[in-house]
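Form 7-S
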Amino acid sequence: MSLDTIPEARRQIEICNACRYCEGYCAVFPAITRQKAFADGDITQLANLCHNCRGCYYACQYTEPHEFALNLPRALAEVRTESWEDFAVPAPLARVFQRHGVALAGLLVLAVAVMVLLARGGGRTFYDVIPHGVLVAIFLPAFLAPLAVIGVSLRRYWRKVGGGPVRLAHVVSAARSAGRMRNLDGGQGQGCNFEKEERFSNARRAMHQAVMWGFLLCFASTLSGTVLHYLGWPAPYGPFSVPKLFGVPGGLLLTLGAVGLAALKPKGDRGLGDPAVWGGEMAFVLLLALTGGSGLLLYAVTGTGLVAPVFALHLGAVMTLFLLMPYSKMVHGFFRFAALVRDAQGR
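Output:
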């Protein structure tokens, strides 16, 4: 962690703990009031519990030009980013992506797509382009290895924040908060101030939910298609098959949610987040949109001569999303869920 970010976040949190005006805004403030002193691990936990809705900033009487100069969303965002980087394996790769995400993601998508096109077979379905066995041999390690890296990062995080044995009740509580995006509702359901300053909006909350549920549906589509394949029903599947009933709504939700987040992001004040990683965050959102959109397009062009190039683009997006999971903002979902579980333990 930086020598500056933790002490500055601690200074601001101690002032917030004395004021307590924002107590009902999100899970951060009730967590603050449960303590009087804050170790480095406590600051890291609060930073990952923060959803950067920014409502506390616009409600605060101690922001600039007040001498306290509070900007808690930015202070926690900087600690949060550094925690992801410090716990990542290897940490330098996380720092590179956070600061050069658009270029890195774009080059990786292009490289994978070109390799697929060079190695492709003929045909008008994606298994004609690359056989199922080859896809499994390539993508299974590319999916499992990043998950293993994330597991190591979460273990480091859990030790840092003093997490104890996890019970089912803790996981259920965290799942409820994550599923409803409760910490983006402004405390009273009116939404947050991310993109409209002092006006409340649920747009960011809705877009986050669309991305989350869209991603889960797409994963369920892939899983169900794999099961059907090994049961003797290979792709392509009809419009009313299980993979399509999961995949088409999932792709639409993922694409629309990611495009919505990309449109909202420039409307937010960069000074209320970590400006150094703005590009990396935008790259991640655009990568999600490309993954969902190219999947839908692939379904639309099945049976035509466009299958090979669209399939190559889709594989490039999916492979890049998987490989960069431990280093892109994709990892925030894992850390935030862990923070919610840790928060449930402290109640």
